[in-house]
Structure formats: structure tokens, C-alpha cells
Amino acid sequence: MRRILLAATLGVALIALPGLAQTPPTKTFPLPNQTFIHDVAPAPGGLIWWTAQSDGKLGILDPKTGANKFVTLGPDSAPHGVIQSKDGKAWITDGGQNAIVSYDPKTEKVTVYKLPEETGGYTNLNTPTEDGDGNIWFTGQNGWHGKVDVKTGKVSAWKSPKGRGSYGIATTPDGNVWFVSLANSYLGQVDRATGNVKVIEPPVPNTGVRRVWSDSKGDLWMSEWNGGQISHYSPSTGKWERIPLPGNQRANLYAVYVDNRDVVWVSNWADNKTYAYDPKTKSFSSVPGSKANASIRQILGIHGAVYLPESGNAAITVVNTGSQS
Amino acid sequence: MRLPIAVGALAAIAAGASAFAQGISDPGERAFQYCFSCHSVEPDQTEVLSGPNLNGVIGRPIASEAGFQYSDAMKSFGVGKVWTPELIGQFIQDPKGMVPGTAMEKPPGPRNPTERAALLDYLTKPR
Fold first, then answer.
1. How far is B12 from chain A (nearest CA, A)?
2. Which of A190, A212, A279, A312 is the 20 to 30 A CA-CA neighbour of A33?
């Protein structure tokens, strides 16, 4: 009954897929054209932050009204990733400025933390994450990872093992930081004291692990761009698992996110769908792109909702998972 | 099996630190850093990259690298065309404007005609 009410509220139909769980209700918010949304993050007050990569701005969507506001991030800005820190600020990886940029919605202050000069001016900054101490870690796809010490403002950067490819990054519940290399297909465990990285090789080479997310137990879930499967690594046991999408279809998995129920979400560019995998029941459901070529490059959410930024359609689709707690 | 901790800097040197922008004197190679994370110009590339190999791309039929999964948009756009310096120059300035539906993101550079010319010259060099 609750699901029907939610669907009516959002004005969408529920579709039952053979052998799969029901498709959850969704609502799609169109964004201004040419802004090129890349990533999204929950913002305080029920708002949604999103990076407008082509415009060099942080977009702020109010899902109640569908209206957007914009924050200018600086000259040459080209933001890629965005997260919300525990103190309610936005932290943005800004490739155009080769800087980490913070935005405080309380004061509307924008602060630019430039990377050290030894990074050469362009690291292709990718994704941020907040560690257990409140510091911001980041990846640069040209082969860098680094940290902003939020107390001192000092930015440190280290060359990642094997060179280019440092991509998705995530924090486990114990506060530690992990990232994956797309180009060199490994999981990296960061030593937060030194910046050193322990390389953990997946059992199958060259799967192109693109993004990573942690579940509530600290297990890591990864999207395989080349291999097309979900990779699962348990640090406590050292065991790997690979999960194919239903039907063993060709897949290119870009984004991964684990929601508050420990359901694993992955976007598949090959069939323009986002899949939700429940490890407890080993079952899948799926959400189609709102139009063709949604090109979802990242996923994030809050309790009860998952945000899908459709870079190909200039839109954000919000999936109501009905798990508000 | 867990591998020993690798010090990032040492690992990068082993992999060829010349790939990084730091200390790169060739203006074309420097400009190529905007492309570097997704493309290689090396004929023996083995990494998993999001974009096609650009070795010999000038004069090559568009969307023609064997084994690379091009978007439908790029395949349609490329019918009967080859990459010229002019086309590549236009494409990197506005990928989605030129090929709506392409997977390529607009890179933040090259940022001026000099950088763009250096990049195109770099892509033209035989390897």
C-alpha cells in the first residue's frame, strides 16, 4: 500500500520484471541544458548538490520545486565529484582548477584548496571522500591520490601505484579510505598516516574497476567497466566475489553505490539501466534511464532515496526506495 | 594473497613517471595530459582506458579501432569520415555539441590555440 501511495505521489508506474523484484518508483528532474551534470550528493535541508561540469558551478536542486540555484566555483572550474561532509559542507573535486573546493551553505563561502605544484597543474581530479577524522581524500585520474587536512588547509598529493587510473574512492565505517584504479584494475588501501597504498589485485585482471563503495560491514563493492560484473571484496576475509548482471548480458558498469539497506546499485551503460542488487536475497531489480543514453556516472543517496545523475539527459532521477528510517 | 605496501612514488617511477605532467618539457605532451587518463598514444597500450587509443588517429576512419566499444552516436557520426586535425580540434572543444550522445566528457583543456596546436602536433607524430 505504501509503495502504491509513493508511486501515485511521484506520478510513475510500477513495473514488475519477470524474475526480478519490482522496479521502485522514480521521479526525474530536468536540469538546464549544456551544464553537463557529472556527480550528485545529498545536501542539507533535503536539497541535492550536483556538479555542473561544463559551467564550472555547483548546482543546488530543490526536489520540492524542481528549481536550481548555482554557485560559481572559480575561473577555469570544471567540477567532477561532490560529497557532503559531516559538518554539512560540499567538497568538490575540481579538475579545471586542479583544486579541491569547499562550499559552506551556511555562509555561502567558497574555499579553493589548490593541489601542490609538484602535481604538474593537472591531475584530472575525480572523486572525494571524507575519512574518519573529517579530512577529505581524493583521486586524480592521471594517477594521483591525496588529502586535504581540513584543520590546516594543507593539501598533500601522492602518485598512485602503477600510474594513471585512480578513480572511485570511498570510506569504510572504520574511517579508512580505499580507492580503485580504472586503468590498472586494482583496489588500493590507503595508509592515512603516510599516503602509501597497499595494492590489492582482483582475482581477474583488467576488469577495469571504476568506482567503489563500502557497505555497513566495511566490505567493498566495485563496478567493473570492462568486466561488466559487480566485484565484492571483504577486507576481513580477503575473499573476492564477482556477480554478473541477470541474463549474463554484455555490461559496462560505471557507478556503484551501497544504500542504507546494504543494497548495491550499479549503472550499466550497455543497456541504459541501473541495477539494484540485494546480497541477502541475491536478487536484482532495475531502473531504466529516463531517456536513451542516460550515461549515469555516479550514484549517491540518503535513507529512502537514491540519486541517479543522468549526464546524457541533463537530469537527475530520484529513486524512492521506500526505506525511510 | 596480500601484496606488500607499495610506496606510491616508487611504484609510479617503476611504471614510467614521464607520463605525469611534472617535468614534461614537450608542450604537446603537456597538453596531452588533459587526455592522458582516458587515452594512450602508445601502440602497445595494455591498460583499461575509457577512450580509444590515439596512436595514428590523424587520418584514421572515425570509430574504427578494433575491439573498442564506441557509442552509437560516434559510430553514426563517423560513417565515411576520417579524423582530421580540424575535426579533432573541434571535437575536444565541444564533444557533445559535435557528436550528441558521445561518451566523452569535455576536458578542461587545451585552453588556448597554442595548446591546441601543440596537442594536434603531438597526435600527428609517428610512434
1. 5
2. A212
